[in-house]
Amino acid sequence: MAKSKAYENYVDWVRDAHAMEKQAETMLTKMADRLEHYPRLRERITQHITETQDQQRLVESVLDRLDKSSSVIKDTAGKMSAMTQAFGGMFASDEVIKGGISGYVFEHFEIACYDTLIVAAEAVGDLEGAQVFRRIKVQEEEMAKWLAENLPAVTKKFLSLVDSSDLDASH
Question: Are 79 and 22 in contact (CB under 8 A)?
């Protein structure tokens, strides 16, 4: 593969994807750790944490093949952003709802990033990378679909717990 400006952008975007997956793992872990009254949501998030860790390894494999490393600065910035977001949500009385909405939005952000990476990988001749990103994109689409289908039930349960219990319905 030629070391063109397009190629350098592609490599930067792969590094960004690695940082994004690190951020996703942090956000998902913080949320899963706090979900007490929503076992189906906790189970699906825990499954997606495992998928996210695999996605990190897949993105790292693309970086290794390109002979580039992930950006420590981007990874650290992503983790800090995720921790701040998770910490801020801990004090919201509707943490589970806001976390679910944020998760849904973040999944679509990831889908858009992988759409871009697929096109970029193909444009610079990294067909193996394009295949990796297609595989990851499917998992992100499945998680977004699950959230879309299940957030209404989570919302109903939250509202039910808020009105009928002394329990902390926020998580």
Answer: yes
Residues 144 and 138: their CA atoms lie apart, in Å, by 10
pTM of the model: 0.84
Residue holding tokens 């490393």? 69
pLDDT along the chain (171 residues), means of 10: 85 96 94 91 97 98 83 48 45 82 96 98 98 98 98 94 69 50
Separation of alpha carbons 66 and 88, rounded Å: 37
pLDDT reported for residue 45: 97
* CA 125/CA 110 separation, integer angstroms: 22
Q: Tell me the two tokens of residue 94.
A: 């509707």
DSSP H/E element including 106 = helix 95-124
Contact call for residues 107 and 143 (beta carbons, < 8 A) = yes
The two tokens of residue 77 are 């910035």
CB-based contacts of 6, cutoff 8 Å, min separation 6: 120, 123, 124
Q: Identify how many contiguous H helices and E strands the chain contains and give both numbers.
A: 5, 0
Tokens describing residue 60: 């790292």
For the record, the structure tokens of 101 come out as 């909405």
